[in-house]
Amino acid sequence: MSDLPDTDAVLVAGVDSSTQSTKVVVCDARTGQLVRTGRAAHPDATEVDPEVWWRALDTATAGGLLDGVRALGVAGQQHGMVTLDEHGHVVRPALLWNDTRSAPAAADLTAELGGPAAWADAVGSVPVASFTVTKLRWMAEHEPELADRVARVVLPHDWLTWRLLGGTGAPTTDRGDASGTGYFAPATGEYRTDLLARAFGGRTPDVPAVLDPAEPAGHTGDGVLVSAGTGDNMAAALALGAEAGDVVVSLGTSGTVFGTSPHPARDPSGLVAGFADATGRFLPLACTLNAARVLTATAAMLGVELAELDRLALAAPAGAEGLTLLPYLDGERTPNLPDATGTLTGLRRAAMTPENLARAAVEGMLCGLAAGLEAVARHGLEPRRVLLIGGAARAESVRAAAPVVFGVPVAVPEPAEHVAIGAARQAAWALSGAAEPPEWSARSLRELPEPTAGDAAEGERIRQRHAEARGRMHG
Ligand SMILES: Nc1ncnc2c1ncn2[C@@H]1O[C@H](COP(=O)(O)OP(=O)(O)O)[C@@H](O)[C@H]1O
Ligand SMILES: O=C(CO)[C@@H](O)[C@H](O)COP(=O)(O)O
User: Fold this and answer.
1) Tens digit of pLDDT per residue, the chain (475 long)?
2) Which end of the chain, C or N, has fewer beta carbons within 10 A?
3) Are 252 and 457 in contact (CB under 8 A)?
4) Where does the Carbohydrate kinase FGGY N-terminal domain start and stop, copy by copy (predicted)?
């Protein structure tokens, strides 16, 4: 990286402020080599005071984690609605991407504009409850006095970036995260403030200026450069630098399927969101509400720890002897069934073992993402290989089932904190002033055994059973 100062240790940091935790990595700016890490937990809620993220960042970086760091970038959970008054104070707790109370607002907004295709044309995505624009409509309808106090609306990463810069001046954002609001058009790079005003009862709060991918947001009081930051999925894409044919599947709180594309996506079915990425391109993405926590919930139901659930799932045959878990435990977003609950079908006396239930949980989680893979394949991506990341990708049972359920080769990039690493890479890019992000050393990639012909047939049967269960739910 020739544009960086020629000294031994130029350090950059990346922050991943996601649903369940804050993770921080410190990397060598030239190579990307990991130097140190920190983390802190978030509460289990869909409505959170942003101060909680600030305190988690403080905890995660305690003990001098950021000593010597020259630049820092923040990647955050997408879509969260952070409302600020004219003094910069938070008006109400942030409503997060997985809060489904705005589902009726999403349906109303969709109808008002003339249907899903009109939204896909306008902003690349059909709004569901996750999108910020629907949360603003909910607030306008249910909390009009609070809505009247809103002077600005920003996203979680925008707010954290602004706080790092002292909490004065105007907040900024990037096109990746802005593309998840529902009032920003990724294809043109412009806000649709008309849609924001329509959603918010005619109110027109300020929105953050959209920085270029390598444009700094500013410097902290200690002179640390703060990069534009982005959404967590955009940061993971930047970390992985996925090649054509690689599609990323992330198994965090959300399950996401995405890849980089030179063209904006526009899916009137709403299965694929036409996001922008963090490099100036696009990031077609399908997102489920139920991923890693399907496994924690199943482990709790069985009265075991995650490690035991993993062992049980590995001990069961592929297909779980017909046990089918449709894991809509927190409602679902893709497909758009915000009020759905989970179902367990295919119960036979001989099949009702802890092993099969554990395997059914793993397969149920993965089937939601397999449907996402099919959807992104119809909208500009070509899944020849899956790169599997996120907390649940650590489980051996998930690694065993993924090639079967997806029916394509799967590789697991190590180490695991790709969102934070992507944010650090963006910081290094902004620090370098170069035209392209720094070439960081390739990370080790564990290629999982390729699916056999038998696996392919079993995978087809598993996906079919889940599709039938989904069909029964749609009525
Ligand atoms: N070995 C494991 N097996 C299964 N799930 C795991 C394992 N390690 C972590 N997880 C799960 O991964 C989730 C956290 O993943 P992460 O990608 O950090 O999520 P997020 O970014 O949404 O906060 C948690 O629900 C946790 O229980
Ligand atoms: O809503 C989406 C993507 O559109 C989610 O992917 C959020 O960005 C939260 O991510 P995690 O906390 O699960 O990483």
Assistant:
1) 334 544 568 999 999 999 999 999 999 999 999 999 999 999 999 999 999 999 999 999 999 999 999 999 999 999 999 999 999 999 999 999 999 999 999 999 999 999 999 999 999 999 999 999 999 999 999 999 999 999 999 999 999 999 999 999 999 999 999 999 999 999 999 999 999 999 999 999 999 999 999 999 999 999 999 999 999 999 999 999 888 899 999 999 999 999 999 999 999 999 999 999 999 999 999 999 999 999 999 999 999 999 999 999 999 999 999 999 999 999 999 999 999 999 999 999 999 999 999 999 999 999 999 999 999 999 989 999 999 999 999 999 999 999 999 999 999 998 779 999 999 999 999 999 999 999 998 879 999 999 899 999 999 999 999 999 999 887 6
2) C
3) no
4) 12-238
Residues 355 and 466 in one domain: yes
**3-class SS at 202?**
coil
Evaluate: CB of 254 within 6 angstroms of ligand 2. Answer: yes
Distance of CA 338 to the CA centre of its chain: 18
For residue 180 and ligand 2, the question of a CB distance below 6 A is answered with: yes
User: How far, in Å, from the CA of 382 to the mean position of ligand 1?
Assistant: 27
Domain of 21, in residue numbers:
11-228
Supply the residue whose CA is at minimum distance from atom 6 of ligand 2: 254
Specify the pTM: 0.97
Domain count, the chain: 2
> Does ipTM exceed 0.95?
yes
The CATH number for 42's domain is 3.30.420.40
Element (H, E) at 248: strand 246-251
- Residue 167: count other Cβ atoms within 10 Å of its Cβ: 13
Tally helices (H) and strands (E) across the chain: 15, 24
Please give the distance, rounded to the nearest whole angstrom, from the Cα atom of residue 290 to the centre of ligand 1: 12
